[in-house]
Amino acid sequence: MHRIKPKEIAFDIDGVFADTIGAFIKELRNKYGIKVSYEDIKEYELAKIVNMNEEILIDLAKKILYEPVDMGIKPVKGSIQVLKKLSEINRILFVTARPDKSGIQKWVEKYLKRDNFDIVATGTHEEKAPLLKEYGIKYFVEDRLETCFILEKASITPIIFEQPWNQKPHPFIKVKGWHELEKMIDWNSS
Ligand SMILES: [Mg+2]
């Protein structure tokens, strides 16, 4: 059983804190009449599973990147409660592979106080590991399986946040949701 100190853990945003795919599916249905279920998203690369033209993909990708608040992206169940509790002990670090952080910064600010967190947008999945090292992070909660292999090589322990798109076999610790993550944190430590 891992006992994780609050200062040792950092988080990805999309697919972990933000239910980006939920909003994506809703938009796809409401605006374009394309029906996909959450469980159908078995690949991280959306274009591979959803049959849509490039124009739609670009439109939705832009919305996810620049207008997550307007798009109505919701927090993943249980996330706010655990993150608020963590932020009372330690400033939270989010590391996203998004190329631009302004949109998602506004989204996170909607749910957490500005002074309680930092966001770093690396622009690439590969940049996450060296950055986390720099911050002294030991555990990272991530939904993209490929990134977890990179993290492990850099001696950062990945925690897979289970999603339909990360169900391939892997050797990593996994959590079904924030309630499980909460149990792994040593709340008496900083
Ligand atoms: Mg993610």
Descriptive notes:
The protein has 190 residues and is α/β, with parallel strands linked by helices. It has 2 domains: 6-18 and 74-184, HAD superfamily/HAD-like (Rossmann fold, 3-Layer(aba) Sandwich), CATH 3.40.50; 20-71. It has 9 helices and 8 strands. Strand 6, helix 8 and strand 7 form a beta-alpha-beta unit. Magnesium ion (MG) binds next to loops.
Continuous helix count: 9
CATH topology of the largest domain: Rossmann fold
Binned strand content: 15-25%
In spatial order, strands of the major sheet run: 1-6-7-8
CATH architecture of the largest domain: 3-Layer(aba) Sandwich
Distance between the termini: 18 Å
Largest sheet: 4 strands, parallel
The shape is: globular
The tally of beta strands, per DSSP, is 8
| Spans where pLDDT lies below 50 across 5 or more residues | none
**CA radius of gyration:** 16 Å
CATH class of the largest domain: Alpha Beta
Helix content: 40-55%
The CATH superfamily of the largest domain appears as: HAD superfamily/HAD-like
Number of domains: 2
List the helices and strands and how they pair.
Blueprint lengths: L8 E3 L6 E2 H13 L13 H4 L4 H13 L1 H4 L2 E2 L3 H9 L4 E5 L5 H10 L5 E5 L6 H7 L4 E4 L2 H9 L3 E5 L11 E3 L2 H7 L6
Parallel strand pairs: 1-6, 4-5, 6-7, 7-8
Antiparallel strand pairs: 2-3
Bound molecules: magnesium ion.
